[in-house]
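Retro notes (design track)

What went well: tokenization of the new backbones is finally stable.
What didn't: we kept losing track of which sequence belonged to which structure.
Fix going forward: every design gets posted as structure first, then sequence, in one message. First example under the new rule, 418 residues:
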């Protein structure tokens, strides 16, 4: 008798659990059915629309698959769950050597307007450094290639053209960290294979790989250091056939206490181990560089072009404290550096901020260096090339730019609209 009562009680609890599950499932489906959301801001994509019945879809079974996708996209609480996941820091121990946190944050192309943040990105946070994780997107990379090739079609044929993609620092981390990221070496190779044949490609990856134990990148900033940029300059010099003084002929200087944006945002107590910022001068030459910018004119709703001159390595940028901004004083629409060469060669660089640490290395090899930032420059490109008698033209970006649709569009628009 007791065994029968126990079995009946067990069956009751099973039935009760089944009913609760059915009610919960019904509520989730009902919530999905009445949902009015059409876009997932977290995932930057449209949500599955409510299926429309057709005999063809019903017979093929696709109608039911559409409902499955619709319910998955519109289940109540989905937005809260995604937010919780995106802000969760996954703490993992790898071989007991380091503490790893993978975080989701916003990618930014460096344009100071409301449209500058263009997508979500993942970053790797270690105890003393932060690394952006590369996420390859073949479709976006094709947009980048099309933009680069548009320059090849427009730049006068007598101007030599070059293209440099700089790998992100995670490419040279320990193997277990590299594997978190997509393969940058392969991505760069794939992109280079698609560029116009008139463009000389610069293989900076191989040279950086040879020196990967050196301080090529900052720990608290996503940029390369002046030393990393030096190897980029050496790779460029080999292809462009320019004379670049040996590194040992430069004097090295150091500024201290630099905590880059990534360090400030993601490393606890980053002030305990700040970055050092090194820069190099040849025979003490800190060449003049003229920065051009836009400012409000006296006439309403109009802007005019302003400028100021300062050394190309602007050591007072952060009042003597280390900062990546010492290179060219940061990003400006365009900058003109006076070079020391006497060879009738002028270099124009269309670049992201990685070009800032690269350009000073060119001062001994060209008569002038023209640095153009397509994110903010509104000057006619062909007019600039003609005005400064440009002989060599380099497109320089770090490889993450090839995964950012907004930057690819900006790069393409700058040449297409001129």
């Amino acid at each position: 008798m007791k065994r029968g009562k126990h079995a009946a009680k067990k069956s009751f609890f099973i039935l009760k659990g089944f009913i609760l599950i059915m009610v919960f499932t019904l509520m989730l489906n009902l919530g999905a059915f009445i949902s009015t959301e059409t876009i997932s801001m977290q995932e930057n994509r449209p949500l599955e629309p409510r299926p429309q019945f057709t005999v063809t879809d019903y017979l093929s079974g696709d109608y039911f698959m559409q409902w499955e996708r619709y319910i998955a996209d519109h289940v109540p609480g989905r937005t809260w769950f995604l937010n919780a996941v995106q802000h969760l820091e996954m703490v993992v121990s790898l071989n007991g050597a380091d503490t790893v946190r993978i975080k989701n944050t916003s990618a930014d192309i460096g344009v100071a307007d409301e449209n500058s943040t263009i997508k979500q990105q993942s970053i790797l946070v270690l105890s003393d450094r932060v690394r952006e994780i590369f996420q390859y997107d073949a479709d976006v990379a094709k947009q980048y290639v099309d933009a680069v090739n548009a320059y090849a079609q427009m730049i006068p044929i007598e101007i030599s053209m070059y293209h440099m993609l700089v790998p992100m620092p995670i490419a040279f981390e320990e193997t277990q960290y590299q594997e978190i990221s997509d393969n940058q070496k392969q991505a760069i190779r794939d992109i280079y294979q698609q560029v116009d044949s008139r463009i000389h490609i610069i293989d900076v990856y191989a040279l950086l790989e040879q020196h990967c134990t050196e301080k090529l990148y900052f720990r608290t900033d996503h940029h390369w250091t002046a030393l990393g940029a030096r190897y980029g300059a050496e790779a460029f010099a080999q292809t462009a056939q320019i004379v670049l003084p040996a590194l040992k002929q430069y004097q090295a200087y150091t500024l201290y206490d630099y905590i880059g944006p990534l360090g400030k945002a993601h490393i606890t107590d980053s002030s305990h181990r700040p970055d050092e910022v090194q820069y190099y001068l040849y025979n003490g030459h800190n060449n003049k560089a003229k920065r051009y910018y836009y400012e409000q004119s006296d006439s309403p709703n109009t802007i005019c072009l302003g400028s100021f001159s300062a050394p190309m390595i602007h050591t007072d940028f952060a009042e003597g404290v280390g900062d990546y901004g010492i290179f060219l004083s940061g990003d400006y629409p365009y900058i003109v550096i006076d070079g020391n060469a006497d060879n009738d060669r002028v270099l124009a660089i269309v670049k992201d901020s990685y070009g800032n640490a690269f350009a000073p290395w060119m001062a001994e090899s060209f008569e002038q260096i023209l640095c153009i930032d397509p994110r903010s420059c509104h000057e006619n490109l062909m007019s600039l090339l003609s005005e400064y008698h440009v002989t060599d033209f380099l497109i320089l970006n770090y490889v993450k730019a090839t995964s950012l649709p907004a930057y690819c569009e900006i790069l393409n628009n700058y040449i297409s609209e001129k």
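Added context from the reviewer: Confidence is low (pLDDT under 50) at residues 41-45, 86-97, 112-117.
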